């Protein structure tokens, strides 16, 4: 069994698509896969949330949402505003562990970034990863500003003794600008390892068969794909002719 926590440097970086990509490749290999969303915010009861997108893209129905709040806020703030109990992350440990007992892979997608609060005690997805002994897959933006966000997140992970499963660019555009091309080298320097993937912009709009192909191309062999970080970096390196 294996548990991977998927987090990001901030909201909107592509965590859901990255989670779906990992799940899609694992399921295609015949692995049993469950996906957990401890706290879904910004979605009303009855509406499709992140798990619905993951289920559609990866063809999964082993999906587990532990709490939902209507306001698009941090889980702690959304629970306060709704006047209800917050997400109980300590109890999520037992629930995820039970899932992992008879699945090959359990993916846990966080809300927002690594240190977003789930309750007023300050529990975060970093704490859940530490309690579970899970590796953390970090999803990042490619554009200007990502280096500081990535460095701060990696530093916070190291401070907490969390194991990095890899760094994945959540949305790589067809026409990357100079900052994005330059950031490829620096993101790998910050992580002290090659990129673990770069998923194409718009991947979330693909049908499941097309998405599986994109996932295979966009994730490294460690996650079941064929992404070659060195080749990707070389293809997109800034030059005088191709800034």
Structural class: alpha/beta
Number of strands: 9
Give the count of helical stretches: 9
- Shape designation: globular
Indicate the mean pLDDT: 96
For the record, give the distance between the C-alpha atoms at the N and C termini, rounded to a whole number: 44 Å
Q: In this structure, how is the largest beta sheet organized?
A: 7 strands, parallel
The largest beta-sheet arranges its strands as 4-2-6-1-7-8-9
Radius of gyration from the alpha-carbon trace, in angstroms: 17 Å
Helicity level: 40-55%
Which percent band covers the strand fraction? Answer: 15-25%
**SSE order, one letter for each helix or strand:** EHEEHEEHHEHEHEHEHH
Residue windows where pLDDT falls under 50 for at least 5 positions:
none
Q: How is this structure best described in words?
A:
This protein has 243 residues and is α/β, with parallel strands linked by helices. 41% of the residues lie in helices and 19% in strands. The chain has 9 helices and 9 strands. The protein has helices spanning 15-28, 50-58, 75-82, 89-101, 125-132, 146-159, 178-191, 208-218, 229-236, and strands spanning 3-8, 33-37, 40-41, 63-65, 68-69, 105-113, 135-140, 164-172, 197-200. A 7-stranded parallel beta sheet has the order 4-2-6-1-7-8-9, with helices on both faces. A two-stranded parallel ribbon has the order 3-5. Strand 7 (135-140), helix 6 (146-159) and strand 8 form a beta-alpha-beta unit. The chain is globular, with a radius of gyration of 17 Å.
């Amino acid at each position: 069994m294996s548990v991977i926590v998927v987090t990001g440097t901030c909201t909107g970086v592509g965590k859901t698509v990255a989670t779906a990509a990992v799940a899609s490749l694992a399921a295609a290999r015949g692995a049993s896969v469950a996906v957990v969303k401890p706290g879904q915010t910004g979605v009303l009861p009855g509406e499709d949330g992140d798990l619905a997108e993951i289920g559609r893209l990866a063809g999964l129905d082993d999906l587990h949402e532990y709490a939902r709040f209507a306001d698009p806020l941090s889980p702690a703030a959304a629970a306060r505003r709704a006047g209800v109990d917050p997400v109980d992350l300590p109890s999520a440990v037992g629930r995820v562990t039970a899932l992992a007992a008879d699945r090959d892979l359990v993916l846990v997608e966080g809300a927002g970034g690594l240190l977003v609060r789930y309750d007023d005690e300050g529990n975060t997805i970093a704490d859940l990863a530490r309690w579970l002994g899970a590796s953390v897959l970090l999803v990042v933006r490619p554009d200007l500003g990502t280096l500081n966000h990535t460095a701060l997140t990696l530093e916070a992970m190291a401070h907490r003794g969390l194991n990095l499963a890899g760094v994945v660019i959540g949305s790589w555009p067809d026409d990357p600008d100079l900052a994005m091309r330059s950031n490829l080298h620096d993101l790998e320097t910050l992580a002290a390892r090659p990129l673990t993937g770069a998923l194409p912009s718009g991947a979330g709009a693909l049908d499941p068969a097309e998405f599986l192909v994109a996932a295979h191309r966009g994730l490294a062999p460690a996650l079941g794909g064929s992404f070659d970080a060195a080749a990707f970096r070389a293809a997109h390196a800034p030059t005088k002719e191709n800034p």
